[in-house]
Design goal:
alpha+beta, Alpha-Beta Plaits, 4-stranded antiparallel beta sheet, 3 helices, 27% strand, globular, YCII, YCII-related domain-containing protein
């Protein structure tokens, strides 16, 4: 499992212009089962994506499709972790 932390590197108006394309990217990977949760940071300096992928390399290939990445709107920090406990009902997240 991976936590992807995006940090915007451009003004928010440039980010906002790319939101529709970014949302389409997210929807594609939710449908594929890769993305499990996502949302904006507070304050709005970027976002977080919780993802499942076979490897960090595979996830990096997916993230390269993100319009935020392609337009150089955000920096991505990827952290892998192995969940060992979850809230009841979220057991499928366990590796």
């Amino acid at each position: 499992m991976f936590i992807v932390s995006l940090t915007y590197v451009v003004p928010l108006d440039e980010v906002d212009a790319a939101i529709p394309l970014h949302v389409a990217f997210l929807e594609k990977h939710y449908a594929a089962g890769t993305f499990l949760a996502s949302g904006a940071k507070v304050p709005r300096t970027g976002g977080i994506i919780l993802a499942k992928a076979s490897s960090e390399e595979a996830l990096q290939e997916i993230l390269a499709e993100d319009p935020f990445h392609q337009k150089k709107l955000a920096y991505y920090d990827v952290q892998e972790f192995v969940p060992s406990r979850t809230l009841k009902g979220l057991e499928p997240l366990l590796c």
